[in-house]
Design brief:
Length: 215
């Protein structure tokens, strides 16, 4: 058949086998790139970088915080000053005790010294001066209020209140507790972690971060 003078050239069709091979190559190359980045920089570094670019949704209202061996879900939260928070802290482990404590500047002496150490894991305890209501205690090993202003919903005996150390509810396997508070005017990044078993849990990776935004 004769081609008209102004008719565009007809490109030959690529066989389906070659198209599939090209797609496979591109997908495979992308997967190798991601795997290489994870190997080179580490998964947590990539997650932190992504959060830095895209941010994290602001949490308010009821948030479930789960403790496993040896990590939290979620391990990153964003709060806003003045928001009402209801943290339902649950220990999902069948064998280990876990706690939730939050502050800044972990005491590195825990990882170097021997003998008796100060019970304060943080140089700054986030909960100092914060009004907190505790309720629905179940399988509580102990609770240390430190300098928080705590209201107990129910008999205090159920919370097994102790002294010494930072604000921290410690739960037996399967335990849970409800922590209600208004986010205080303490913007910035705060760390949280579990310092049970001579801080092995924390060193193993049981930690997280909270970004607090201004009101």
């Amino acid at each position: 058949m004769n081609k008209l003078p102004n008719e565009p050239p007809v490109e030959p069709e690529i066989p389906e086998e070659q198209q599939w091979s090209r797609r496979q190559f591109l997908v495979g190359s992308a997967a190798l790139g991601v795997a290489g980045a994870v190997t080179l920089f580490g998964r947590q570094a990539l997650v932190d970088a992504a959060r830095g670019l895209f941010g994290s949704p602001v949490s308010s209202g009821t948030v479930h915080l789960y403790a496993y061996d040896y990590y939290y879900i979620p391990n990153y939260m964003t709060w806003r000053v003045g928001d009402q928070m209801d943290i339902i802290f649950q220990n999902q482990s069948h064998t280990h005790w876990h706690e939730w404590t939050m502050g800044r500047h972990v005491n590195e002496a825990y990882f170097q010294a021997f003998g008796n150490l100060s019970a304060d894991a943080w140089a700054v305890d986030f909960w100092d001066g914060v009004h907190v209501t505790l309720s629905d205690p179940y399988n509580i090993d102990n609770f240390v209020p430190n300098k928080a202003i705590v209201t107990y919903d129910g008999p205090k005996a159920l919370f097994n209140i102790q002294t010494g150390g930072d604000f921290s509810p410690t739960l037996k396997p399967g335990g849970s507790i409800h922590i209600s508070f208004t986010v205080p005017n303490k913007p910035g990044i705060w760390d949280y972690g579990c310092f049970v078993q001579q801080y092995i849990h924390y060193r193993t990776g049981m930690r997280g971060k909270v970004m607090i935004l201004p009101a």
